[in-house]
Specification:
267 residues, alpha+beta, 6-stranded antiparallel beta sheet, 3-stranded antiparallel beta sheet
């Protein structure tokens, strides 16, 4: 099955499709300058996208027909611990990635959560995942382990949803009170999302802006700096910024500027 044929099949199931750059994980800004907002199930639109870029990878918008648990290389240990404590995951569609897997579930209403446990991400509202037969930057194919024709979508177990809504443990430093409210989580997810969807030419600027905005909240005690850095590193990698030294320099610059201008919020 070609990429276009697969994209059309997904669209026929009612799953909004997004064209990504070939062998990449980021939206093709030349085809969808507004990124995820332009995901579509329209056949003519998809045919036009893949006519312009036959090797475009396939992104499927989450939070519409399904959500996904994204397990990366270091996420298997985290998942094993959760399963050991709570029981096995129910059997639904599963995609094998280059380094892990995507477990699909019915829509939960949850937003995106980066690294809610080490190596585990959640793709929900305003998110997307790559779909077979997309090609990983390493050259590996995304492949079905359990295709949707063989397993229906199932509800995410309550213990997994609870992990997505759990507040972080209180900080150990007595002089620092980190706000673990939904506001703080939304702030990180929102700014990281802007970086993830940034087009070529604006990625470094978006990263710096996000670091500044979140740095303001770190400075006022709303967020923990390590959580912010981890989220922005993940977002930078997803948008194609692969020079980690430069990425960390950009984040540090934005954080310093934000810390100098703390922004307080009402509780």
């Amino acid at each position: 099955m070609t990429l276009l044929e697969a994209a059309l099949e997904y669209a026929g199931r009612g799953w909004p499709v997004l064209p990504l750059k070939p062998r990449d994980k980021v939206p093709d800004g030349a085809l969808v300058p507004h990124g995820l907002k332009e995901s579509s199930t329209d056949q003519a639109t998809l045919e036009g996208w893949w006519e312009a870029s036959p090797a475009a990878n396939i992104g499927l918008r989450t939070g519409v027909a399904f959500d996904a648990l994204d397990v990366d290389t270091d996420g298997w240990k985290s998942l094993a611990c959760l399963v050991d404590e709570n029981g096995c995951l129910p059997s639904g569609p599963v995609v094998m990635t280059a380094n892990g897997a995507h477990y699909w579930f019915k829509v939960t209403g949850q937003g995106n959560r980066a690294r809610f446990r080490p190596g585990l991400d959640w793709r929900g509202q305003a998110g997307y995942v790559l779909a077979p037969p997309s090609v990983h930057p390493s050259g590996s194919l995304y492949e079905w382990a359990i295709p949707p024709d063989e397993a229906e979508l199932v509800a995410a177990p309550a213990w997994l949803v609870e992990q997505l809504t759990r507040r972080p443990a209180p900080p150990t430093q007595p002089s620092r009170q980190v706000d673990t409210s939904a506001y703080g989580r939304r702030a990180i997810e929102g700014e990281a999302g802007k970086v993830t969807l940034a087009s070529v030419g604006e990625r470094n600027a978006k990263l710096n802006e996000a670091a500044f905005a979140l740095g303001q909240l770190v400075g006022s005690g709303v967020l923990d700096v390590d959580d912010v850095i981890a989220a922005l590193l993940t977002a930078a990698a997803r948008c194609g910024l692969n020079d980690e030294t430069e990425v960390r320099r950009t984040i540090a610059s934005g954080l310093r500027a934000g810390l100098a201008r703390p922004r307080r919020v009402s509780s």
